[in-house]
Amino acid sequence: MTSLQPAEPFKHLNISSAEVLERLTGRSPCPKCHKSRMYFCYNCLVPVDALTGKIPHVRLPVEVEIVKHPGETNGKSTAVHAAVLAPDDVTLRTYPDVGSYDPDETVLVFPDSSAGSVADVSATAPARDALLAYQRGKPRTHLATIEAVYYFVRELQESRHDTYGGEFDDLLFILRPLLPDCVP
Ligand SMILES: [Zn+2]
């Protein structure tokens, strides 16, 4: 997998305007659990009322299940971004809840330098589901979970269709304004 470049990381991506996020002046209650949240509730996986229907709704080419390390809190995990932005296609689990999968239709995506390429995966498996597992405590050079999901579906799309039109770029919608060095 390639990594985002540190300089102007989002310059060439087709990400929706962050204006709706910038207009928020403070926290508001989660529509489900009523706890005070900024953009979304990392436990209920829904945006705050002010953002309901106003943030991108991304559809993915595969069902993605993300298995989180139990020691990683939801509040710090960018895996939550995937569940909030692509709620139809992303399930977030916490180990040891790993769900059950058909090995013939599932690929395991585990960010690792020795991993095969996505093109290899899509050539050998009729991937309908992608299971993403990862470890905590990795150095900063490793991809954030949301980046790993993004690059996986992007490379899958490119390998299946030989082209990519930016349709998954909004997976990085929430990440974008959270990066201090990012110019919107
Ligand atoms: Zn909540």
What does the model show?
This protein has 184 residues and is of the alpha/beta class. It folds into two domains: 1-11 and 58-184, no CATH class; 17-55, no CATH class. It contains five helices and eight strands, in the order αβββββαββαβαα. It has helices at residues 19-22, 79-85, 118-124, 145-161, 175-178, and strands at 28-29, 36-37, 40-41, 46-47, 63-68, 90-94, 106-109, 129-133. A four-stranded parallel sheet has the order 6-5-8-7, with helices on one face. The protein has a two-stranded antiparallel ribbon with strand order 1-2. Strands 3-4 form a two-stranded antiparallel ribbon. β5, α2 (79-85) and β6 (90-94) form a beta-alpha-beta unit. Residues 122-127 and 137-141 have low confidence and may be disordered. The site of zinc ion has 7 residues, from loops.
